Amino acid sequence: MIERSSSNVVDRLRLLVLRTDARQRLLAQRLDRVSDEYRIARSAYEDAVTDYIAALEERVAEE
């Protein structure tokens, strides 16, 4: 009886470890994807700001 109970506990713990590992892999994939999206968005923002500043400088030079 005790061996069966121990075996059940061990099986549950193994299942929890497998689930935790799977969740960690999924979260790592999400983090990579979000990091990539952030880098792309930040780059686009920096480009837009640079273009805006250049346009302002041109406007000031024309006046």
Topology:
Layout: H1 2-62
Low-pLDDT runs: none
Number of strands: 0
Relative strand content: under 5%
Order of helices and strands: H
Largest sheet: none
Distance between the first and last residues' Cα: 92 Å
* Backbone shape: rod-shaped
Give the rounded overall mean pLDDT: 94
Our count of helices gives 1
- As a percent range, the share of helical residues equals over 70%
Task: Kindly provide the radius of gyration, computed on alpha-carbon positions and rounded to a whole number of angstroms.
Answer: 27 Å
- Counting helices, strands and paired strands, the structural category is mainly alpha
Short description:
The chain has 63 residues and is mostly helical.
Question: Your description of this structure?
Answer:
This protein has one helix at 2-62. The N and C termini lie far apart (92 Å). Helix content is 97%, strand content 0%. The longest helix is centred in the middle third of the chain and has 61 residues, at 2-62. It has 63 residues and is mostly helical. The model has no long low-confidence stretch (mean pLDDT 94).
